[in-house]
Amino acid sequence: MRELVYYVAVSLDGRIASPTHGFESFLSEGDHAEVLTPEWGDTIPEPIHQALGLDVRRGTISTVLMGWNTYAVGLPDMPSPYSHLEQIVFSRTQGAPAGADGVRITDDDPREIVTALKQQRGGDIWLCGGGVLAAQLVDLIDRLVLKVNPFVSGDGIPLFAGQYAPTRFALERSRAFETGVVVNEYRRR
Predict the structure, then answer these.
(1) How far apart are the first and last CA of the chain?
(2) Which residues does the chain have with pLDDT short of 50?
(3) Which CATH superfamily is domain 4-188 in?
């Protein structure tokens, strides 16, 4: 069965983006990137693959889920950022922008969509962000892969933006890098 994997960069204080939904503080270069790029190549936007001449896609992920604000970070330059994947964006108010070929914008219940996706054939389902969507799906997440960056944000988009509902995960692996990034991998208990 397909797994729902929340693979995301996070600050020491649990923020996945700045208050303006930016990622400028997160480290994108260094020894952690050298290791994670080939391991998680499916999560690199297609325009970046092309610009850098990369081909590190692994085929282990076949669907990406995003909330509107996560998706909108790449607009207007990347209206179809993960064209190598099935792209589903959740929004109650927005429609597809020009050039968003292969992007499904939906206001359907994310839980119902994930439950259906898990029953289908294919690679894993990557929850790209954001925090509100992650909170709605927390009890359906099979694995958490957190790239913990060595800074405190102070404010911004939380890893999970929902009501208090403790959910346990078991640490499977932790790797520290010279950049100060620590990658923690958890599985649902």
Answers:
(1) 17
(2) none
(3) Dihydrofolate Reductase, subunit A (3.40.430.10)
